[in-house]
Write the structure tokens for this entry.
Amino acid sequence: MHLRIGGDETMPSESNGMALQIEELYREHKPLLISIAYRMLGSMTEAEDAVQDVFVSVTKLGGNEIAYPKAYLVKMITNRILNMMKAAPRKREHYPGPWLPEPVIELGSKDDLQEHVLRRERLGYALLVLLQTCTPPERAVFVLRESLSYDYSDIAAMLNKSEAACRKIYSRAAAKVGQRPRTESESALDDSIEQFVQSFAQAINTGRFEPFIRLLTEDAVMLSDGGGVVRAALNPIYGRNRIAAFFVGISGKGSLAGQLHHVWISGQRGLILLRESRPPIAFTIEPDDDFSAIRAIYLVSNPEKLTRITE
């Protein structure tokens, strides 16, 4: 893949040496940069645009001027994203119903490099949703620290802040999204999500939701993002009984008829319902702190957010 600049999918021809160097930087660091941008923005489309803008800037500067490419590019993409996020709240004020991040869905077993990076970072879709409750600086510090294991000194240099300030920012973000131990909880988290997803799949396939509903906490919440394009709940649905009524209701209308697939959704196990002549629906869940129950269900049916489904 060639870097696209000004609509031309080839690198500038006037300096082949520099073009090849920047092309190599693009190939090597693109998955990492897109992953960072996607985690902060919640939109793969915007993430790709941000990375494109960064490499346009790099091309203008010339690759020979970059002493430490990875650190330089991560700093550039982080600051580019912080500028982009200033406009995000205004856009979402007028969004019809809950706004959920754009899911990146992998149907098959193909080991796509970009999706592999998303999985490896252990920041799944549920945490991506929670990150949207953080301020832009909180998101930046949390992703750089939790996802990439950057030292606070490195994060401070990227954001032009003190180490102490970055530690405080991280603490605020962790308090909002919840902080799980890295290695100790990974297996338990994967096992619990797999169990919950299996139960959800069985409920959709059989129309019997009682066993799945019993896995929800009493104060569980369901968020449904139709984007005003398709019908969806315009407000969060709170409580086990109301969530049960919702699924029984749409199941009775045939809205859950189709082919159900177990998939990876932004690095986390989930489900995609492919429906004939109707937009698909992506489902993911968020377990509670000890992984014993489900405290949130996320349902994305906005077709504009379901274009990234790969085999």
In short: Residues 17 and 136 are 37 Å apart (CA to CA).
